[in-house]
Amino acid sequence: MLKVYGQPNSINVRKVLWACEEIGIGFEREDWGGTTRPTADPVFKALNPFSLIPVIDDGGVVLRESNAIVRYLAASRERSDLLPADPVQRARIEAWMDWQGSDVSSACRYVFLGLLRNRADCQDPAQLEASDQAFTRLMALADQELASSGGYIAGPAFTAADICVGLSVRRWFAIPRPRADLPNIKRYYDLLNERPGFQKYGSGFAS
Ligand SMILES: N[C@@H](CCC(=O)N[C@@H](CS)C(=O)NCC(=O)O)C(=O)O
C-alpha cells in the first residue's frame, strides 16, 4: 500500500492526495509537519533529509517533492491522460506545474503566511500588499490562458497540471481580501469543483 507522509493542511501534501484520488490509488497517510510531528525528527529525516512534506514510499520507492511525486504517480500508473508520454504535450503540462511550484508559490508566500496562517512575522502591510498583487498578477495570466484553453489550464482535458494550479487557485480565493474579477479563473474553479478529488482536497480546505 502506498504510504504518504505529511499532514493534509499542506497544499503540497494535498497535491499527492488529490492525484491518488484521480488515479484511484489507495494509500495510508501518516501525519508529519505543521502542528503534528516535527519534520526535524530523525525518523522523518531518514525519509527526507530536507525535512519537508510530502514524502511517499511506494513499495520501497521513497520520493520527495510534490510535483515530482504527482508526475511519478501518473507515469507509474500509466495515466497518460494526466501526463502524456509525447514530449511536447508533456512539456506543456509540466510548464504549468513548474510555474505553480516556483513562481506562484513564492509570490503568494507572504500573504498566505500572514493572512491564512496568521504568522506574526508576516504582517507588514506593504509586503502583504506586494505579495497579494504579485499573486493576483499570476492568476490574471492563468485567467488569460483559460479564456482560450478549452476548459482546463493545459487544454480541453484535465491533466496533472490542474492538480497543482487548481490548488493555488483555491488559495487565491481563500485570501481574505477583495479578489480581482477574473471570470475565467472563477469558471475554472467551478469546473474543478465538479471533481470529488478537488472537493475533498481543494475547496474543502481553507487554503
Ligand atoms: N518544493 C516542496 C515544498 C515542500 C514544502 O514546503 N512543504 C512544507 C509544507 S507545504 C513543509 O514541509 N513545511 C514544514 C512543516 O510542515 O513542518 C514540494 O513541493 O514538495
Topology (elements, then pairings):
Blueprint: E1 2-5, H1 11-23, E2 27-30, H2 42-45, E3 55-58, E4 61-64, H3 66-76, H4 87-116, H5 125-148, H6 160-174, H7 183-192, H8 196-201
Parallel strand pairs: 1-2
Antiparallel strand pairs: 1-3, 3-4
Helix pairs in contact: 1-3, 1-6, 4-5, 4-6, 5-7, 6-7
This protein binds glutathione (GSH).
Q: What is the class of the largest domain in the CATH system?
A: Mainly Alpha
Strand order of the largest sheet: 2-1-3-4
The CATH architecture category of the largest domain equals Up-down Bundle
Number of strands: 4
Q: Structural class of the secondary structure composition?
A: alpha+beta
The whole-angstrom Rg is: 17 Å
Mean of residue pLDDT values: 98
Helix residue percentage? 40-55%
Number of helices: 8
Plain-language structure description:
- By secondary structure, this protein is an alpha+beta fold.
- It is built from eight helices and four strands; from the N terminus they run βαβαββαααααα.
- It has a four-stranded mixed sheet, covered by helices on one side.
- The two termini are 28 Å apart.
- The model has no long low-confidence stretch (mean pLDDT 98).
- Bound molecules: glutathione.
- Glutathione (GSH) binds next to helix 1 and helix 3.
